[in-house]
Amino acid sequence: MYLFFGPLMVIFCCDLTIRESKKLLKTCFKLDQYLPLESEESRELKSLTNIIKSRRPVFTAAGFFQVNRATLLSLFGTTTTYFIIIVQFGTS
């Protein structure tokens, strides 16, 4: 059972982390609109925004492909394709 749910949990956690970083960046841009231009808070927020933009989280599988929800769909598609081929060869 772990062989099925383990990779799913890893993929969802990686994707959730990427989505949260995007939400944080959006929040920084929204907050920046309400702050005075030359305030200390505005400078700190712009610094945080630059750090988030330059160091976005990217999860890969040994550098071969990125791990996200598209990986999950690709995994299901490939598994389904191989299952169909095995069934077709088994009936002939």
Shape annotation: rod-shaped
**Helix-strand pattern:** HHH
Mean pLDDT: 89
By DSSP, the count of extended strands is: 0
Sheet with most strands:
none
Note the total helix count. Answer: 3
How many discrete structural domains? Answer: 1
* Share of helix, binned: over 70%
Provide the structure class. mainly alpha
Report the span from N to C terminus.
Answer: 31 Å
- CA radius of gyration is 21 Å
InterPro entries: 7TM_chemorcpt
Membrane topology: Multi-pass membrane protein
Subcellular location: Cell membrane
Keywords: Cell membrane, Membrane, Receptor, Transducer, Transmembrane, Transmembrane helix
Topology at a glance:
Blueprint: H1 2-34, H2 40-54, H3 69-91
Helix pairs in contact: 1-2
What features would you describe in this structure?
With 92 residues, the chain is mainly alpha-helical. It has one domain. The longest helix is centred in the N-terminal third of the chain and has 33 residues. The two termini are 31 Å apart. The mean pLDDT is 89. Keywords: Cell membrane, Membrane, Receptor, Transducer, Transmembrane, Transmembrane helix. It is a multi-pass membrane protein. Pfam families: 7tm_7. One of its GO terms (biological process) is sensory perception of taste. Its main location: membrane.
